[in-house]
Design goal:
Distance between the termini of chain A: 41 Å
Structural class of chain A: mainly beta
Oligomer: heterodimer
Helix content of chain B: under 10%
Chain lengths: 113, 117
């Protein structure tokens, strides 16, 4: 079955620490990959996406993600987090050019000032 | 350009009732997708509408139905509400072509929080 798994439910970091959030997806054909963020009280926003080409993609606010096809992974990274990065982060996949996003269960990130 | 809007913001219903949720898509978008997000979970795809036709459906029973109007706004209807239907319902709009909108970013609305008692 097509599915997305995020390894951590809740991550707590201090400001300036480095961040890596794991995301793995099941095999199911060609994939388009996304990371969405939901800040407290706000709606889901797209951080970055991968469709093809360079497997290292850069998004907004200093985030980047690396697509490793052999590992079915699309981990999100940021070298130095800020308090304002406190939010819930969702990895999502579209399989075989279909229209539906399949989301992971989300990772809540808390950054201590 | 205006973003995706949803109404109402919050709704409380009792088991067995019916509910209609509404979504106005972003200007220029012709595709609307609906998702259910239970507490502590990621959004789950309900269905998608492209130019007033259903264009894909997730694992939800037939009592979840929808409509898309000529102005591309959309409704989600849920009949015979159950306690497990309590969730945040998200609408996302995008610009699709030829029935496939996967390459176009889906812009999400703020959601409708439905509580079923």
């Amino acid at each position: 079955a097509q599915s997305v798994s995020q390894h951590n439910h809740h991550v707590i970091l201090s400001e300036a620490a480095s961040l890596e959030l794991g995301c793995n997806y099941s095999y199911g054909g060609t994939v388009n990959l996304f990371w969405y963020v939901q800040y407290p009280g706000q709606h889901l926003q797209l951080l970055l996406k991968y469709f093809s080409g360079d497997p290292l993609v850069k998004g907004i606010k200093g985030f980047e993600a690396e697509f490793i096809k052999s590992k079915f992974s699309f981990n999100l990274r940021k070298p130095s987090v800020q308090w304002s990065d406190t939010a819930e982060y969702f990895c999502a996949v579209i399989y075989n050019q279909g229209g539906k996003l399949i989301f992971g269960q989300g990772t809540e990130l808390s950054v201590k000032p | 350009e205006t973003g995706v809007t949803q109404s109402p913001t919050h709704l409380i219903k009792t088991r067995g009732q019916q509910v209609t949720l509404r979504c106005s898509s972003q200007s220029g978008h012709n595709t609307v997708s609906w998702y259910q997000q239970a507490l502590g979970q990621g959004p789950q795809f309900i269905f998608q509408y492209y130019r007033e036709e259903e264009n894909g459906r997730g694992n939800f029973p037939p009592r979840f139905s929808g409509l898309q109007f000529p102005n591309y706004s959309s409704e989600l209807n849920v009949n015979a509400l159950e306690l497990d239907d309590s969730a945040l319902y998200l609408c996302a709009s995008s610009l699709g072509t030829s029935g496939r909108s996967s390459y176009n970013e889906q812009f999400f609305g703020p959601g409708t929080r439905l509580t079923v008692l």
